[in-house]
Amino acid sequence: MASISRSSLRLRSVMRVPGARTISTTPHLRAAAKPFFADEPTAPKLSTAIPGPKNKAAAAELDKVFDVRSINMLTDYSKSVGNYIADLDGNVLLDVYAQIASIPVGYNNPHLKQVAQSPEMITSLINRPALGNFPSADWAEILKTGILKVAPKGLDQVFTAMAGSDANETAYKAAFMYYRQRERGGPEKEFSDAELESTMQNQSPGSPQLSILSFKSAFHGRLFGSLSTTRSKPIHKLDIPAFDWPQATFPSLKYPLEEHAQENAQEEQRCLQEVERLIKEYHNPVAAVVVEPIQSEGGDNHASPAFFRGLREITKRNNVIFIVDEVQTGVGATGKFWAHDHWNLESPPDIVTFSKKAQTAGYYYGNPALRPNKPYRQFNTWMGDPSRALIFRGIIEEIERLGLVEHTAQTGAYLYSGLERLAQKYPEHFQNLRGKGQGTFIAWDTPKRDEFVAKAKGAGVNIGGSGQSAVRLRPMLVFQQHHADILLESIEKIIKQL
């Protein structure tokens, strides 16, 4: 595969677009920065109110054929570069929402453009294979040099999927099949006639009443199985039949952490005891526990490494599959390639799901018994997409070439320090600042969150919220200190308008 030389990305002067209002930041810091994108804007540019007339007209046209009620902004991707997103009216915003945390190495990344134009990509796009039946001859090589190259420690196999919800649902299926296979006495045991007949009626024993334990405020997707483990907002779940599955309490930590260490430890211990009680007592046996390293959609809720080590110990002791949902936290955003690397587990999770910044999806596993005992039990036509796996391989190459995981850890520390200063200055607007030591995966609560997010575009920033009151930051891995300076100045400007 072709790759970009360092010389092609060397810093050269960047022209600022004339005639547009720009948002200033500290000049000497801006000058000292070495941008990863030579043609990236030096600051946000606001040409009209947002949404502007062209965006409004385009949205009205789209509304005739597509539901636009959830649209954030119509985007001109041809003019979006690096950390900046452009709309149809000439507005260019610093993007710290990044397509709901799913853009890793910047808009119009030159290396990914080369990947997209490669013969491998062309072949995979125009001859898209039904992977379970007709994988390409180089599929093993694509996996080994890409997805499996960054597999979590101890996990050396992968099932590829289409999206995060799909990844979680197939992971749940793997856990259920493993549970029943163990009950039968091993993978060599054949299904009984009663199982074969009853499953066609959606009845036991062929369709057993097993469960997946998730946590309050969790988000694991919007498909049927994943939706039954999602607990973040009622609007996700209303009118959809759900499985009778248990939910445990996720720790509600108090901040600053160093001032509430004993209380937080007690809270986490209480939650762990609840998890074990549910595993032992819930009327539908628990086959797996699924957890996010940081509850993202549910409010950016954190827990300590000790809590997750406790979960791993409980699941092992009770022979329950431990699924870590790294759909949003994976691929470098927390200053580690996988967020669960922060936990220092004695034994790895049984399954780790991924998507978003990987630009593909699936789950990793290591135990051969988690591979179904029969073909077609984990199967659909596409089973993922080789073109997306090629993009992920290109993303990995960029992450390695530029050292973006370590870079994100350093930039996150710089950004967090700036936010701490703002929190001290505006305590009524900064509550429960969290994410220290977690790269750029940072959030805080504010009583006027919705108003804050609405005003952000007028300050040159595309930003998002989560839960009831959290502002969440999801910048790309190419987010740098000079971007942090712009963001901090914009946040202060927004606060002064509230």
Automatic annotation (TrEMBL):
<dbReference type="InterPro" id="IPR005814">
    <property type="entry name" value="Aminotrans_3"/>
</dbReference>
<dbReference type="GO" id="GO:0005739">
    <property type="term" value="C:mitochondrion"/>
</dbReference>
<dbReference type="GO" id="GO:0034386">
    <property type="term" value="F:4-aminobutyrate:2-oxoglutarate transaminase activity"/>
</dbReference>
<keyword id="KW-0032">Aminotransferase</keyword>
<dbReference type="Pfam" id="PF00202">
    <property type="entry name" value="Aminotran_3"/>
</dbReference>
<protein>
    <recommendedName>
        <fullName>4-aminobutyrate aminotransferase</fullName>
        <ecNumber>2.6.1.19</ecNumber>
    </recommendedName>
</protein>
<dbReference type="InterPro" id="IPR015421">
    <property type="entry name" value="PyrdxlP-dep_Trfase_major"/>
</dbReference>
<dbReference type="GO" id="GO:0030170">
    <property type="term" value="F:pyridoxal phosphate binding"/>
</dbReference>
<dbReference type="InterPro" id="IPR015422">
    <property type="entry name" value="PyrdxlP-dep_Trfase_small"/>
</dbReference>
<keyword id="KW-0808">Transferase</keyword>
<dbReference type="GO" id="GO:0009450">
    <property type="term" value="P:gamma-aminobutyric acid catabolic process"/>
</dbReference>
<keyword id="KW-0663">Pyridoxal phosphate</keyword>
<dbReference type="InterPro" id="IPR004631">
    <property type="entry name" value="4NH2But_aminotransferase_euk"/>
</dbReference>
<comment type="similarity">
    <text>Belongs to the class-III pyridoxal-phosphate-dependent aminotransferase family.</text>
</comment>
<dbReference type="InterPro" id="IPR015424">
    <property type="entry name" value="PyrdxlP-dep_Trfase"/>
</dbReference>
